[in-house]
Automatic annotation (TrEMBL):
Homooctamer; tetramer of dimers. The lineage of its organism: Bacteria, Pseudomonadati, Bdellovibrionota, Bacteriovoracia, Bacteriovoracales. It holds the Pfam family PdxJ. This is Pyridoxine 5'-phosphate synthase. InterPro entries: Aldolase_TIM (IPR013785), PyrdxlP_synth_PdxJ (IPR004569), Pyridoxine-5'_phos_synth (IPR036130). Belongs to the PNP synthase family. 3-amino-2-oxopropyl phosphate binds at N8, R19, G201, G222, H223. Gene3D superfamilies: Aldolase class I. Keywords: Cytoplasm, Pyridoxine biosynthesis, Transferase.
């Protein structure tokens, strides 16, 4: 089994929104990704709509349905966004934390805060009861005390936030402690019948040790792919990343 590669196309929308034009097209980005080996498309509908817009959710959804591939909708626990998710009916929803001033998602959800935990629990219940067969993941740090709380929720997967790992890797520093943490998280989650995904800040190089250790079933990668595609093309970038995945089967 080959780990799945989800392509996050938010960063195409970031470029579009920077000038308020109707290009580059996220629909084209989704199509090219799926034609070249993406296993799913990931988009993050932020509350501040800084990149993906409500209409993008609808148009990208049509593309993923046409290709018969999953849409993974990332979202904060916000009642308005929950309604949009219900109307769109994605196969996967990844609940993530959001801060207005952050440049990008800075960490995982805080499940140790009781009020926050209850908000997330209610959102999970509402999404599961409103969208047939939807699967839900939580974007979390690989900390056992957080993962223990995650097992109290009706979720299908945890997506481990790999942002700090990716930074340490790119500085050329020791990544050993992350690998150990991720292995422990994987073992704990597997014992609790929860799948283990990864994402944030990963590149064609930083993903390799994670693939070698066979830790994650799914990776969601966006920023590096879209940046690399500027000079190498989106099709070539995805094909060559996909070949790295293909040479690292899970079993
Ligand atoms: C949750 C997450 O990691 C992704 O949404 C990724 O960060 C791309 O979105 P932003 O650039 O808006 O953070
Ligand atoms: N959930 C992580 C994701 O979708 C992609 O993150 P990034 O590669 O854009 O940092």
């Amino acid at each position: 089994m080959i780990p799945r590669l989800g392509i996050n196309i938010d960063h195409v929308a970031t470029l579009r929104q920077a000038r308020g034009e109707d290009y580059p097209s996220v629909v084209d980005a989704a199509q090219v990704s799926l034609l070249n080996g993406a296993d799913q498309i990931t988009i993050h509908l932020r509350e501040d709509r800084r990149h993906i817009q409500d209409t993008d959710v609808e148009t990208v959804r049509l593309v993923t349905k046409r290709f018969g591939k999953p849409l993974n909708l990332e979202m904060g626990v916000n009642p308005e966004i929950v309604e949009i998710a219900i109307a769109s009916g994605p196969e996967w929803i990844c609940l993530v934390p959001e801060k207005r001033q952050e440049k990008t998602t800075e960490g995982g959800l805080d499940l140790l805060d009781d009020a926050n935990f209850i908000r997330i629990e209610e959102a999970v219940k509402k999404l599961k009861s409103s969208i047939k067969d939807v699967k839900i993941s939580l974007f979390l740090e690989a900390k056992i005390e957080v993962l223990i709380r995650a097992t109290q929720l009706n979720i299908d997967a945890v997506e481990i936030h790999t942002g700090e790992y990716a930074r340490v890797f790119s500085n050329g520093d020791d990544i050993g402690r992350f690998i150990e943490q991720y292995k422990a998280a994987k073992e704990f989650l597997t014992n609790n019948k929860i799948a283990t995904h990864a994402g944030h800040g990963l590149t064609d190089e930083s993903v390799v040790p994670l693939l070698e250790h066979k830790i994650f079933e799914e990776y969601n990668i966006g920023h590096w792919i879209i940046c690399h595609a500027l000079f190498n093309g989106l099709s070539n970038t995805i094909k060559s990343l996909k070949s790295v995945f293909d040479s690292h089967p899970l079993k």
